[in-house]
């Protein structure tokens, strides 16, 4: 008995229909079990990221040089200007001490007047990420 091409096509179509009817997709329910410490870690990261708005804020650079002098300048600055937070940033080949986190240039300039009394070479910067 010879099978015609039309019968083959019908057979394959029928078989394909039967296979697709019995095929099931994934369930929609997904259960995620995570450690509660993970959520705490995410919250801490969100707090840190919220306080670091580098592109939108102005800072005052008070020092650029080697690491030991940068640490000394930062400690000295923290004693003199307790209301301003400071950080050391490494930009090849120097360590730079940045203080403050000012929203506007005017606010940075007002603080720069006081800071220049102690650090004559201080100037305003707007860091890029």
From TrEMBL:
Lineage top rank: taxon: Bacteria
InterPro entries the record matches: SPOR-like_sf
GO terms, molecular function: peptidoglycan binding
Entry protein name: Sporulation related domain-containing protein
Organism, as annotated: Flavobacterium frigoris (strain PS1)
Lineage summary: Bacteria, Pseudomonadati, Bacteroidota, Flavobacteriia, Flavobacteriales
């Amino acid at each position: 008995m010879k099978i015609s091409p039309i019968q083959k096509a019908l057979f394959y179509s029928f078989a394909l229909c039967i296979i697709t009817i019995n095929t099931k997709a994934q369930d929609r329910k997904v259960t995620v079990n995570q450690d509660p410490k993970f959520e705490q870690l995410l919250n801490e990261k969100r707090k840190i990221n919220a306080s670091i708005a580098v592109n939108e804020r102005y800072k005052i650079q008070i020092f650029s040089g080697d690491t030991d002098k940068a640490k000394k300048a930062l400690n000295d600055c923290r004693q003199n200007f307790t209301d301003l937070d400071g950080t050391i940033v490494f930009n090849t080949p120097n360590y730079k001490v940045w203080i403050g986190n000012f929203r506007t240039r005017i606010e940075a300039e007002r603080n720069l007047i006081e800071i220049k009394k102690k650090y004559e070479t201080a100037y305003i910067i707007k860091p890029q990420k």
